[in-house]
Amino acid sequence: MKKRIIIxxxxxxxxxxxxxxxxxxxxxxxxxxxxxxxxxxxxxxxxSSEAVLMTPLTGEHQNVKTVxxxxxDGTLEAVVFYKENEHAIVKxxxxxxxxxEWTKVQTFLGDGNTLxxxxxxxxxxxxxxxxIAGFSFRNDGKDARKGLAVYQYDLEKLNRVFNNxxxxxLIDDLNQDGVDELVTILFDQYDVSGMFVFNxxxxxxxxxxxxxxxxxxxxxxxxxxxxxxxxxxxxxxxFFGNQEGFTDYIxxxxxxxxYVFDWEPIHPTYKSYMILSEDTNHDGIIEAGVPYIPDNDDxxxxxxxxxxxxxxWDGVDDMILINEIYDSIEYGYRFDFPNEWxxxxxxxxxxxxxxxxxxxxxxxxxxxxxxxxxxxxxxxxKFILARKNNLxxxxxxxxxxxxxxxxxx
Length: 409
Ligand SMILES: [Ca+2]
Ligand SMILES: [Ca+2]
Ligand SMILES: [Ca+2]
Prior knowledge:
409 residues, mainly beta, 7-stranded mixed β-sheet, 5-stranded antiparallel β-sheet, 2 helices, 4% helix, binds calcium ion
């Protein structure tokens, strides 16, 4: 599929609208402002005075109305969600445009009291964009059992082709065959939690496979993307107890979902303090974060002494250390360890963590000091890294390469 969709934000009435529009349609911008004004009037003419327009609580499309060319025929469609009153079920309205005039095509039903999220993607693999909407039964969207609906645009109407209970949803081409998978995750504190992967085949959404999720855990972070060269996965940062957790990688080969790592006896990403997975070195591959907590005598978790280690999966059965950082939450800075600082660094702090020292084999490699600007007087042997909120951040090392590893958070 050609990536010809661009997103254009326009400021307009209410709390805004979002335009998802093809390049061809952008060839005629002068009429666009009038077209949007006409749409606003048309929307209002179909709503009662008590009706409330809904903006998704999360996701990319956090706007009152979404305007796009679903079937790429050069004329625009618009989708708006609203409810008649505070306790009503959310409904959708579909409008279509011709020569700058908008017509209401249909009203369609949602599956909850709040619009939680909205995606405009072709999950039915027919070349026509679909409307994928998640609905919550709470105002804050924090219920585990939300309602997900896929509306396929066909014969100029939106038809609901899928409806399911879910907690998290992802759309990604996990096995890279050119067809997006729809993945739903359901967390259930009373029953078994699971992950379900669907492909649209033979005019319906077909469950391809599902796996159980560890029922002891909750998810803190559910993302998908590359986890190794040419390999995508669903990445779930889960936690149990206070802070303990691990990062699960789940693959889809077109037929089956499978875990990369076993939970027992010990998960290779086990963490005693929760750090989220992210692409820390910006190479397009997600890293799993694991805290490195040095031995200390009092066994108390001292956040000022731990570092974050980020590991990439080797594509087989091991995790490789890619990146290590030190975050000072107290003073709001990050220090990325240089590549040549291989394992064995330990951290010492003093003066209420205002001074941090990075040490290897009893040798001081770098230090970071934080003092109030008013106390920063004798500047000899001090090299300023940054200033913020009347604080000065400095080091006693004269090494401009190391300064690049420091940044304020
Ligand atoms: Ca479609
Ligand atoms: Ca696929
Ligand atoms: Ca990365």
